[in-house]
Structure formats: structure tokens, C-alpha cells
Amino acid sequence: MAKTNRKGKYMPLEWEPSAANTAIFQIPSRERKILKITNPLGSKSSAVDQCPTGSPYNVTSSNEGRGEEANVSPHVINATKQSNFTSEQGITTSNGSRARPDTIPPQKPSPNGPESGRRTSFIKQTQPEFQNATKEALPAPKTTTIASRENSQQWRPDVYVQTFVSEALRAINDAPAPLVTTRPVDGIDFGKYVSTFAGTHFLPTLDKPLYTSVNGNLPVNSLDRLLPENYEQYFGDCLVLDLEAQIPECRSYDLFGVQLKLKHPEQQIYELRVPGLREGTPSVNFGDSVMLRQLIIDPATRMPRGMDLWLKPGVGRDKGAPCPGFAGVEVQATVVGINKFNEALKLKANGLALPGTPVCNVSFVVQASLVQIMQRAVADIQQELGRGTGSAKSSKVSKDTATEQITDYRLVNKDKMMEARNSNGVTDCRPAGFQPQSSLSVTVDRSPSTETSQENLMSSECPSTDSWLRAMLFPSKSNGIQQKALPSARFPQTWFDTSLNYEQKKAVDAVQSRYYGTFGYLINGPPGTGKTKTICEMVTQLGNDSALTGSILLCAPSNPAADTLALRLKVYFGPKRMLRLNAFSRTFAEVPEELLPFCFVENEIFSIPPLPKLMAYKVVVTTCRDADILVQARVTNRDLVSVQENLFMAVHPDRPSVFSTEAPLHWTALIIDEAAQATEPETLIPLTVVTPHTARVCIPSPIFVMAGDQHQLNARTYHKSTTLHVSLFERLSSHPIYASHPLARKSLYRPLQSSPMLRPPFVNLVRNYRSHSAILAIPSSLFYANTLIQEATHTDTLQSWSGWCGRRWPVLFACNGGMDDCEDICTVGGGWYNRREAKKAIAYVLSLIAEEMIVEQSDICIMSPFRAQVNLLRKIARESSLWGVNIGPMEAFQGLENRFVIICTTRSRKRFLEEDKMRGMGVVDEKKKFNVAITRAKEGLIILGNPWVLATDPCWLAFMNFCRRNSLWSEDSEKEDARMQGLEEANVNEWRPPQGSGNGDSHDEAQISGLEAGLIYKERNKQAGSRAARRFMSGSESQEDTLWRTGLAAEEALRPMEP
């Protein structure tokens, strides 16, 4: 009889022969995990027979999201001489008998479906994990090949499961324990800072209730449900759901049975090696918390002490006895140092029970403080929207606006609704008597026209807080200004950067003059069109405009992006006029050396300058999240006005406050670069800094500008069913005010309407200064309405390379018929890789260098969506002495550019595509990832992939059609991969574009983009010029030559008649 475990469940086992001698086990536990045990010696004999007892094995997980080296201690897998495994010789049982892999029969199909049927042998799961195997040989099953298994209904191993961890170690993590906290690192004392200029008497408390529950009555999977009245509830639910979705990912990075090295005994500082830290898996910052549970190790077994007996039914655990292998306390350690190069953390841990070098289970927890910052910003915005609505009760209501905004979805909690509401529940987003102003006579939303000068516009009154916020977050036509005359092509500014093009100058002039009304101004810039360049000129113009008082808050979603802005602006603003504001958790090594004079340091950490010094800066550069420093320091526009007003009333109680009629703003502009990469709640953090005081007349009204590209990668979120990943920039870009405007990008080639239109609160950058036209052709057609204009120079320097095909444009699709694998690679964590594809990519690099097309290796980058493929590429490249080639995941290259780009798509089997989509992996059905990858290249682009797989994505199909019809195509010269025998994907050279898709066999003009047509036209003119030259040299003359000479003669005859 086959043995079962104590729960009566059978232990299925399946072998897959591989070069790494890898055995795959599936343990039918609560989480159904697969374990890979790799023989470190790579021999055909038993791994345990060759290794000392208790030696660690390379245990890898197939969870692609991790991608780090699985440096798991022997406590995770205790494969001792009690249970020996080998993929060649079968199973060695505890009594010495062997059961070969070919004697394992298939299990009868389960009634739950064909996927439940498995080929099994039966192993009893006790402690250690695998103690007994079957004692009798079983009948041999029918032999099946790997290719036939692809299409069969038999059980296949799940390649996405996580690393198996023993029950003993998981039980220790689940055991109850008191918490011992470690003192957090010293940060900024905001209470002390605020007391230097204002006491609690002059400022209300900052603490506001945070949204902590999810109300299922409001769907958060559609932006159609988002209204000003339910703003906090909508994004509160999104943030809570996203926070909950982060927990499983954090738990997937947990480490079990790892040893900490004691570095400073007197300070109790330990070093912890964390695989994947270099690539942000997990993401850990200075000052974060890490949970430690110390193990009590038995020296004989190198396992937690006494766990075998404690885990038995009816013994220790079932009776509630303390866990004998656990020290009994959970320590909340603090990160005090990060070394990403060596993937090591320094932890300060007070209260570890056992001295020396402890062995611990390490848990990474969600840092809820980052979410709480956004929750506070959302609550702050909702509170100000409510206050503003109450103060604007007398406003006229636009019938059209009311009709658009009223829906059946309202806040369920009535106490969160505004008490003072008009009959329709909405306003027209402007106070009573407010008139839009401009330098021309205009009519706005049926309001009387007004006529003022440019100077009056600069000093015009702004609406109340609610009106201003609604105009920024929920714009309507009533916020705009109608255009009745064509704008002038001349600009009055003296440009600091004289290389700006017309669209860039137009954006700067529009923001500086603010002639477009009360809107958030959007700079829509595709890759390589100069968004950051436009932002820097805009900041410089505003910072040197004497008519604009106050300071400019300049933000970006990430520290590198903010550093780029500061580095470009330091030429125009010295250290006394510009501040690079950093969080105290940022290390000095992360900041470029040139920017250190622009930073403020106190007590050996980055901090905020004293109030007088802070107010003197003209430009403050920081990240969107670090703008919360200004919120906690109570230097927002509303807080500053409150301090001034309350202090004036305290000093002059008998005199009316001058701030009741006029409140000058300190923060007069908020400009966010790369805004499409930030979530909307993240964008709200700096927005709360510049929001004017409720029901006050502010001079001038704040400027709000965002630059970005909604077709590139957005912010990373964890919950897939909410709209949190949609940025404020993207949401506004799809609003009719912007998307349906006659000058919108998709409407540029349509006839203009005859009726007056609103002045555009946006600009479309169309001139690309990065890439060759062949590289831009498909992105321009798919994402930018065929509007991109190629302005880059010297992009044809690599066209003489021997690797190009067809028209010899610097684009190539290279077919790859190699199979994608998922197993251990050189002791690196499991994941998807494609060895044939990696070798082809490195061969292309070596060819470019051998032909001296590229001298600097850093001019070449290779990217792949799978980390395991990235690791393999790096390994092969280093073996070929290619140390300078940039190799990394696609997400790491957003915002960067390289002369030559090679994209490894890796996936070669369709059956994994659905799982890829669920997990956000790969490049199929990932439009934004496709766009980012293609547009990184300047002078050369190669795509390696399987056309059968990529053709399931319309974007990749369009790109492959482009390559086919222009013969930019290279077939796979290697023989068919035997492991893919019988699969359609194996015959990559037989792929042809489907009919009617703009394939290479029919030159359908509708499928050819403007840039592609321009390249073809240029090529034909060049060929025609060569033919004309040959005819001239041969003395023959065609009809065209005769007409040309006749024209010259007519011109000579008319010349004497000129005055």
C-alpha cells in the first residue's frame, strides 16, 4: 500500500530531465507549491551522495516577480541521507530500495477536471519534509514526449508557484509572540520646526482622519464614478485595496533561516544579505522596518530545535505549547544602511534573545506611512472641496455642467457630504460675479465678454478654493476662454534656451501669460520631444518674471527625475535661489555631487531650511511624495495665510483683518514633470501645497502645469481591478476639454470647426529629436495619431552595418525559434529565459563591435521583460568581455535612450500568455511597455522574438507587418528546437501576416504611416536622382529632361523683364 501523510493526502512527484539535473516536486499542501532541487555538482549521481550532510541546495522559485538568487539555507530544504533524490537513478527510500522515474504511473483523473489528473508516486510528509518514499515499484506509464505533453490534458507542473518552505519554519512565523521595537532613526522634528514661527494657537492641528475602510457601494474600476462629492471615498477605497494587495508580494520576499552578521555589538547593528535588493525586489528604504524572528537551532540537525515532535498531531502545537525552535519574541528592526551593489542591509535590532550571529526568519512588511501620506492628501482635498462649495452657494449653476456631473452615485456616509448644497448639488465652479479675463474680448460659457490688458490678467482674482480645485481636477467649459482670433507666431520673451521649437515656445508663453483660463495646463510630449527641456525654460521664465511674485514648486515622481530637473536649472539659479529638497531617508551617495550645494543638511541628514531661508528660494525641486515635507512643516499656502491672519488678529483685535479681502500666495506655481508616472493621489500631495486658502481672494491665482505622456509606463500599482494606475495627467487627457478640442492630437488632420473654440489648455509636442524615422514610424501611427516629425540628426551612421536587411533601414525583426525555459540558471532565482535568443542578441553586439560600427559598449542596451533572461544575458555578455553593455528589464530604461537597442521578447509559447497577462509580465498586450521599449533607440533597433506569439498582440502585429513589407526581416537560421516539436510556434520561418492586416504582400496605403511614406518617397527620389545623373552622363535625354530645359529657357527669357 502506498503511504499517505497525516492528513491522508498523497504526495505526487514528477521528474523533468534537464541540464541542471532538476527534480520538480509538487506538495499538495494548502498553497500547492512546487519545489526545484538542483544538484550543485551537475553530476548524474545523487546530489546528496556527493554533498556533505546538511549542505545547502539551490532551491529556486518559479515566481517571475522575484528573480533573485535563492540563497536558501538547509533549514528550508533538509535533504539529508534520510531521503536521497536523483533525476537519473530514481528515488532512494529510507530502506535502500529504488523506484525509478519511469515506474511512476499516472494518477486517475480527478472529477474536478483534466488538469487535476497527475502522474504520482507517494511520499509521506513528516519532519523532515520528505522522509519515506514508496517501498514497492509501480507499473510503468506510457512514455510521452515533451512536445506531446504540451497539448495533452495530463498534469503539468505550475511554473509560477513560489519556493517551498518547510512547515516548521512557517509555523514559527505564525506563532504568537510579543513585539520588541527598535528606536526609529532620527528624522525631521516637524513639531519643533513649526514652533519656530507659529504655535498651535495660530494653526489648526494637521492630523486628519485617514480613510481605512472599503465601501463596496462605490465601484472603483471605472473613472466614470469619480465625482467631486465622492473623491475621498473613491481614492480611499483604491488606496486601501492597493495596500492590501501589497501584502502578498511583501510576504513573497520573506527569508527563512538566514544568518545575520553582527557588525557593531555595542550598537546592535547586523548585516543581512537580501537577494534581489539591487533591482528593488524587495524595495527597502532607509528607516524602514524589517521583522525578525530568531530561531533556536539544533547543532546536530541544523534545524529548529524540537519541531518534529511539536508539529505531530495532538502534541505541542495542537495543545498550545510554546514553539521550541523559536526564541519567543519578534523584533522590529530598523534599516540604518543600504548597500545595493552587494545586496546587503544594515539593521539595528534591539532585543534579540540569543547573542552572537543569530539565525532568523526575516519578514518584509508594507510601509504604510507612504500610503498614509496619500490618504491625508485625498482627505485634505475632499475637505477643501466641501468648504468651497459651502462658500459658493450664491453661484450660478451651469445647466450643462449640472447635467454632466449628477449621477446616482453619491457618498454613502452623509456626514462626509457638504452640508451647504444648492438644489442640484453642484456649482458652476466659480464665485458669484467672477468674469474670465484676457487680452482680447471674449465670451465664456454665455457670460458677458470682458476686455482687459495682459497686466490685469496676471493680477486677476482667482476663484474660491473649491472653484480652483474643481477647475484643476474636474474642468468644465465655463473655466475656459474662447478664442476668436488666430494667435501670433511671435513671442515677446527673451529666450534663455534659443534652440526651442515653436510648440515649446508656445507652451512657455501660454503658461506665462495664462490666456487659456482656469485650467491645469498639459504638455503632451511623446518620447524624445523635449518635455523636460520645455519645463526648464518655463521655470526659468517664471522665475525671472518680475510680474510673478512668490515661489515655484517643481516636482517629479522619482528622485532621478527631480535630480535631472535640478541639474539643468542650476545654470540659471544659484544655491541661494534654488533648493533641492530631499527626504531625510535619502543617502548622500544617491545625490549627484553637483547638487549637494543646493541641498540643506542638518544633523547629518537632509532636512528643511528654517522658514526665512525657505521663503527666500525662488524654486524648490522635490519629488511628489517628498512634497509632504512642506505639508508637515506647515508651509502650504493655506497654512501660511492662516498664520498671517491669526497673528494679525491677535496683535490687532480691534482692526479688521486685511486678509479677509486679499491673501497673497507664496507658492504661485506647481509644475510636475513626468506626471503620467505618478498616481493621482500622489499628484495631490504637492497640489495641497499650492491650493489657495478657502474663500479668500488670492493674488495671483496658482499655476498648475503637468508634462508627461500617457502612452508610456505609468505608476506601478498592486491591485489590478482599480483605476489607481491611471494618473491625473492621463485622466485629464481623456477629458472632453482636452481630448475633444479641435487642436487635440487626434484632431489635427480634421477641418477646424467654424464656431469659436476654447483656447487650448494644452500643447502637443510633435518634433522628435531622438530617433530615426524608421524607428518612430509605428509608434507615431499607433499612439500619436501619425503626428510625429523626425528632427534628429546623424541617425543614419549605422546603416552601413552588414546585419541590416531589405531597404537597409536601421530596424530589424529577427525570428527566434528557441524555446522559453523556466528553471534554475547559474544559481539565480527561477524565471523565464530563452537561451537561443540570448546568444543571438550577444552575437549582434559582437558583430557591431567587430565591424567598428560602435566603439563604446555603453551605446548598446539589451532589454527583456523577464529578469531571468536579463540574468542570462548578463552572464553571456560578461563571458564575452562585454562589460559596458547596458542590460536590464524594460522598466529600467524609461526616460533613457541609447544609440542601439536590442529587445529580447523571450516568450515563445502561446499557452503561457494568459498567465503573463494576469501577472503583468512579458510584452504581449502591454501597449505602454511596447511603446517605451521601441522608442529608446536612436540609430538602430533589433527585435528578437517568435512571430506566432507576438502576432496575438495588435501592436506587435503592426510592427511585424512594417518589417515584412519593407523586408526588414531575418529568418532563424538554426534548426527547429526539438523540444517544441509539434507546436505551431516552432516553425517561425513559416509565419506570414494575416490577410487584411497591412501585410508585406500587399502595399495597402492605409497601413503606411507618414514617416514610413516619407522614407519611401526619399528613397525613390534618391533613386530617381541617380537615374537622371546617369542619363545626363550618357548624353541621352528624356521627356522630363526636355521639360526641365524648357523651364530654364523660359526663366532666362523673363529675367530681362524684371524691374
From TrEMBL:
Q: Disordered: where is this region?
A: 42-120, 437-462, 975-1005, 1027-1059
Chain intervals with Pro residues compositional bias: 103-112
Q: What is this protein called?
A: RNA helicase
**Where does the record say this protein resides?**
Cytoplasm
Annotated PANTHER family: BRCA2-INTERACTING PROTEIN-LIKE-RELATED, CANCER/TESTIS ANTIGEN 55
Q: Biased composition, Polar residues: where in the chain? A: 42-64, 79-97
| SUPFAM superfamilies, A to Z | P-loop containing nucleoside triphosphate hydrolases (SSF52540)
Enumerate the UniProt keywords alphabetically: ATP-binding, Cytoplasm, Helicase, Hydrolase, Nucleotide-binding
DNA2/NAM7 helicase-like C-terminal domain ranges (all copies): 752-946
Q: Which residue numbers delimit the DNA2/NAM7 helicase helicase domain?
A: 500-570, 668-715
Q: Which CDD domains match?
A: SF1_C_Upf1 (cd18808)
